[in-house]
Amino acid sequence: MTPTLEIVRTPQPSEAAAERLARAIARVDAQRGACRLAIPGGSALAVLPHVLKDLPQGTWSRVQLTWVDERCVPVSEPDSNRGAFMRLGLPPPGAALPLWADDDDDPARAVARFGREFVRAFAGALDVALLGLGEDGHVASLFPGHAALQAAGAAVFVADSPKPPARRMSLTLPVLRATPLAVMMAAGAGKRAALRRVIRREAGLPTTALAYLVIATDIDSEGESDE
User: Fold this and answer.
1) What pLDDT is stored for residue 210 in this prediction?
2) pTM (two decimals)
3) How much is the pLDDT for 227?
4) What is the CA radius of gyration of the chain?
């Protein structure tokens, strides 16, 4: 399948991303009764309140939720992506599968536990993923040039993240590559250089491997064709 890239430029990227995400979730929910969704932390979480407003009533209560990446810290700490989601105060989804749980104490066991549960509860696949974009072009905790890009299975432990905190877990590139739709929010001038690289489908960027990527952004197109 030829990879597809779609760019939506708008002054309200979180609302545009939410509209595409909600449409995909509702479609999957109508087809099979639940959507398997992965979300990040950071500024992309601003999309989720808009998603819930756009969804048909009752849809969110059937969503099977997990995270594209997580920091190996307790959920109560500010660095926790799962904790950031909980602090939004949104209604709980139908089910939630953490990458790193408070009772995890060993990354290898956490990776194995997630892998088993991902197969059992998610049939080993996602329907849609929400992504943020790092200024170096990373998504989830898959950094350009990092060995984690070569990992197989469902999740990978990253012991030496270039961006602190160093210890993280991430969905693997094969999982994201197999996801039918990824919706990315890329907002702010600080992401301009990374966005150019994504749009050029630069070799070595994790986004270049994605099957269908929709980017909602408030960054204009100036200089995108620069080599």
Assistant:
1) 97
2) 0.95
3) 36
4) 16
- Whether the upstream peptide bond of residue 49 has omega within 30° of 0, thus cis, is no
- For residue 1, what pLDDT is reported? 57
Structure-token match 């849609």, residue found: 128
CA distance linking residue 7 with residue 217, whole number of Å:
8
Q: How many degrees, rounded to 5, is the angle at CA 181 between CA 175 and CA 187?
A: 105
The answer to whether the Cα torsion of 20, 21, 23, 24 is positive or negative is positive
Q: Which residues pair with 69 in a beta bridge?
A: 170
Please give the structure tokens belonging to residue 16: 């545009």
Tokens of 109: 């066991």
User: SS3 sequence, the chain?
Assistant: CCCEEEEEECCCHHHHHHHHHHHHHHHHHHHHCCCEEEECCHHHHHHHHHHHHHCCCCCHHHCEEEECEEECCCCCCCCCHHHHHHCCCCCCCCEEECCCCCCCCCHHHHHHHHHHHHHHHHCCCCCEEEEECCCCCCECCECCCCHHHHCCCCEEEECCCCCCCCCEEEECHHHHHHCCEEEEEECCHHHHHHHHHHHCCCCCCHHHHCCEEEEEECCCCCCCCCC
Give the CA-trace dihedral at 33, 36, 42, 43, to 10 degrees: -50
**Joined tokens for residue 123:** 């049939």
- How many other CB atoms are found less than 10 A from the CB of residue 142? 26
* pLDDT > 80? residue 162: yes
